[in-house]
Amino acid sequence: MRRTNQFVVRPRSEQDAELLHELLDASASLWNELTYERRQRFFGELDGSVWDAPRVHDRYKGILGSAAAKEVKRKNDEAWRSFFSLKEKGERCFPPGYWGNEEDGRDLRWYGRCDQYTLMMGGRSRLEIPVGSDLKDEYDHTGRLRLEVAGEPKWDGKQCRLELYYDEFSDQFRAIQPVTIDTSRLDSPLADETAALDIGANNLVACTTTTGQQYLYHGRGLFERFRDTTREIARLQSKLREERYSSNRIRRLYRQRTRRRDHAQDALVRDLIERLYDEGVSTVYVGDLTDVLETHWSVRANEKTHNFWAFRAFLDRLACTAEEYGITVEAQSEAWTSQTCPNCGSTTDTIRHQDTLTCSCGFEGHADLVASETFLRRQTDVSRPMARPVRFEWDDHSWSEMSHSHESPKEVRTDRSIHG
Ligand SMILES: [Zn+2]
């Protein structure tokens, strides 16, 4: 079974940081050059198929080392193969693109073959990766770059391809390391708890578990920044001269906007799945996609929020991360869950105003949390009482718990403009 370690790595000196930066930049440059050659052929600017592109990676052996240069090429091969296979199935897809560019900055990323790097666990974990002979000479280095690992990687097993990248928002180098583990060693064998999610715009995710936990991830601040960037893009576009379709500044803003959202989504999914894993959850229910798009989106959201939340991408991320932890994600219809009173079961006597659901029977509660609880009760028995909900907000780096002063649903007044 495949699991994935994610951890922060730190260079041990200023010089090592420089070297690591150069290594990741060369790797991105190789990716971009090869991608350019292949796209030229794919779009018919040059003769031949994408597989006829020159051996660009040979020129990077000196910096990256032969194996790492080949690994980037292999990764690029895989991207094209998966593109062609989607295309054959008639699915919507795009040919592999660039990792940024030289002018605006490349996405610093590097891949290491499974036998190329060493991860030493325990006490003070360390990671060692190879550098090419040119860099070795330039930096008077041993040829193996040793990095500190922050914290203890969670999974121990047969190591697979390592990915290293620079995360500009946290200003940190991060590693993603898949490992194959022996299934007989999986922990939490008693895990048979269940959770249900309500996914929205003001509150990105509301979650209820059969262990009586409730989590709420606030999306308002994140959405406001997304909207501000969108407005700035529109302002810049209106100032462009007629013959120019876009500018570097606009392209950079688009990329920034997408990356910021993806970063927050990634972090949310990971935070949530880790909590669910610790609670012993083995199954997560989410609203059926068409269902969600109809009930939540066509009525409540406009084009902008849809774009912002990138719902399909979120579900993909959720499924991938859940799989790492051995948690199953199941889609079920959640029709009416957001209008049902948990107290009397009525769907007609309830009123939703902003974040609050009230019922003529006297019930009042947080609409999204109630919806996730109703959704959960429809899938399974919930015998335990609900604990006080835990609320999270995004601070640009991580999701952190909000203070208790925000507890009452009445106090959380949200922006109605999101619902368009
Ligand atoms: Zn009621």
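^ zinc ion complex. Residues 248-278 form the longest helix (31 residues). The radius of gyration is 24 Å.
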